[in-house]
């Protein structure tokens, strides 16, 4: 019967409604800041006459100090730039955390990253007038792309840009690089190709190399070293950028507490010594880090370790400002780099810059020249405030006027500054003002589209409410009749009509936002259709509610899934969510086992408790949780310990050995893929391992897995239980491959938990009737318990809902996919499986809850089996939809909360990913079950 595929189409329909509504919410919530196309322009000082205006045809000549004084006396004059007097060598050591640069001779047993850059200490002691060292504070997110954008524009990054970290597009805003090229300057680039992707065609010479080989510690650094010293000897460039990646890659692969980090920092120390020795005395050398790293070597979030980088400055002919030892380690903002380098290179600050000049890292200048650079900075800030107020209503007019007036007051004061003491006070006042401006923009930088957010929340609540009525209200025997009707085709036809109308309206320019119009119209029409369905069958809904009062364990399970979602409104519960989900899962399972009422069921529940307790060893630590122990100690380094390797091999071997005996001919594929996975870990383990052969074995395992997924669709007439079981086992092997040997045992524990729960559920009976027993298996309590376990094992496999905890190593366990034409999709798929493989596996196994066991569904007809599978899949999907809705509501409530970008927004993103994975798994498992459940023949 063709109508049986209506079940699958409806699940796809539901998945579309949920994910499209979340997409609309994301468009409203994750908007980036308002970007302006303005470019800062300046008039060369040589073209300005003695009266302070452009001299035109005048032949009058006067000293530059006189010109500057007259410009300062006219605060409304244009920005005047001096000819470039200095050259700059910018050495960016990726992930150079500030404490990597500190030196303490009193430490007897330094950590691998301590006391590894003594050259900085030596230069600070020997040449304090030539050398500076600061804490270089980054703004979150601390991903490389956002940091480079902030460094060259002087602006603040946005959270949403983190998603494009590995697909950089050309930078459209005014920036330091464009300012130098427009002024006739020449630039040389060595190292990370993110610069060339962001700013293509700007370079006199470019030797950019691919930056995402995170396990390659030396190639980029060696290539830069082979060219940078020759470049230092040339004088045809104004700005030299050398971006080293070894320290960052050592952190990603091994973490900071590893001998490889020691080696890379020692190389950096040797490199800096040679730099200083070969650097021309008039060239400014800046050695900076774009961000720091956590104790596991990760970055991307907003912890202090990730935000605190280092800035080291040196010039053979000396620097200006205060060289007091008390200033070593003072905090400066990364936004200050762009206006500072612009001043050194004779250019005005970029238009979006919110930074202030760092005079201590610039050469000594006279008071008039210093004031010229400061007033240029203030004029640029004033222009930006005026233009931003015209283009965006984010900042109140009163506050904006206050800031603009404050900049004018400082500009008016400039002409009265004469002495060095007055200049120092003036510089402090200007820095305080610019810091105030920067803080104002930090508070209101993201402009939320409240209309899109409210529309999305409306669509989500409609989809959840009406589908809850369908699953909880419609009697089981009516479901096959509904899906044998034209209900689902009518819905898809209505959606197609909506899409056609929206496209027509967009073509005739009636609509401005096509995507939002399609999502809103299809969502509303879907809600109307499901509402109509409920109204048509309202008699059955009311009769079922009247006759069958749900039992306590049913109500408790629903309350548990709602509670697991509602507590996400609190940042404290998000941080400790793993423990909460474990408790709720065991509580729901305890009541289900108690309802079964047998010693075996209670024993199975006790085993579940033991297994979940064992998974506690693999739950990771957030920074907010303080010190806690994390299993898989070698995981941050990409290398499992010997004990972890033995556990991984033993767990996979046990699973495939048991699977082979119970799943027929399909078990050969599970065994083969599992053996390849074990060989992949064993061959690549240790310093004597063979990485190339290990990667080849991983590819072999993936080839077997993909082949077996294709063979799952081969019918053998034995029903859907065996193919679904093999599907779950294949997902398990796939999870072990991406999790790696360090966390592979946690996947085995998840599989064992699922088996125990299936056994408990298969014991549930409502009466002597098999049909009623099947109805009990498809109750809300079963779906809620399964959903809670699927959510829990995101944490049980060592993950956390923070950007800094995303593990990128799984993308490279079988080789570097970026050499392939379809590399980015493969990378995204592997990282997604690592993150959301557990919801995917549990989602695909949902039909087993209804069909598992000797008396599962063998004595009922195909229509009843299909209705049971559909009902349970939809309930499972609803559990995740509820969690996503509450996360979206929480983000809306807390949109101005201090932790919005550190806790609530990452949780929304990760919960959406888990929901998408669960929906995909549900659809796949339901389709597989539908394919193998025999077709019902209508009687004459």
UniProtKB/TrEMBL annotation:
Its main location: endoplasmic reticulum. InterPro entries: Alkaline_phosphatase_core_sf, Phosphodiest/P_Trfase, PIG-O_N, PIGO/GPI13. This is GPI ethanolamine phosphate transferase 3. SUPFAM superfamilies: Alkaline phosphatase-like. The keyword Transferase applies. It comes from the Eukaryota. The chain crosses the membrane at residues 7-30, 452-470, 482-506, 518-536, 556-575, 581-614, 665-684, 696-713, 733-762, 826-851, 872-893, 908-931. Pathway: Glycolipid biosynthesis; glycosylphosphatidylinositol-anchor biosynthesis. Belongs to the PIGG/PIGN/PIGO family. PIGO subfamily. Keywords: Endoplasmic reticulum, Glycoprotein, GPI-anchor biosynthesis, Membrane, Transferase, Transmembrane, Transmembrane helix. It comes from Loxostege sticticalis (Beet webworm moth).
